[in-house]
Amino acid sequence: MAQASPPVVVVMGVAGVGKTTVARLLAQRLGAPFAEGDEFHPDANIAKMAAGIPLDDADREPWLRRIAEWMAERGREGTGGVVTCSALKRHYRDILRTGWSDAFFLHLSGDRSLVGDRMSHRAGHFMPTSLLDSQFDILEPLQPDERGVALDVGTGPEQLVAEALGQLGA
Fold first, then answer.
1. φ, ψ for residue 148 (rounded to 5)?
2. Are 143 and 43 in contact (CB under 8 A)?
3. Which CDD domains match (predicted)?
4. Residue 135 sits in which domain range?
5. In this structure, are residues 11 and 129 in contact, taking their beta carbons and an 8 Å threshold?
6. What is the pTM of this model?
7. Which of 17, 68, 92, 135 could form a disulfide with 108 if both were Cys (CB 3.0 to 4.6 A apart)?
8. How many domains does the chain fold into?
């Protein structure tokens, strides 16, 4: 009996929830490629965010389409993959699903004060804490017809990955 291909997973949520940490660990456990969604941003987007200016939908669309292309490649190759992406709006997730319609969204969610505290203690990231409110303001939770699960980041990365693997049936 042939073994199913690893899934294509988008680890989503506002800045500071631990997307990269969880996604790296999940990719390792699945034996699938990992991609950091921030690396798909054009330089203009990074400069805008670093200056404390929130991105708008027009800024995000090319970025989302590049991530969708990565997802499509992993799906076609049968390797699966895990990518980080805020994916804050349903519309953004719809764009990502153009790359791989069966994508699984792992929404890491947390309280504003906890996430803000985490952001204030990380170094070397272009996203300032001042933009956190703008992310929470536009966040649209997963809808019942979207494949995925929301997990609270109050637990550690190992527990989050174990829960995600359970949801994925892995």
1. 160, -175
2. no
3. GntK (cd02021)
4. 8-168
5. no
6. 0.87
7. 17
8. 1
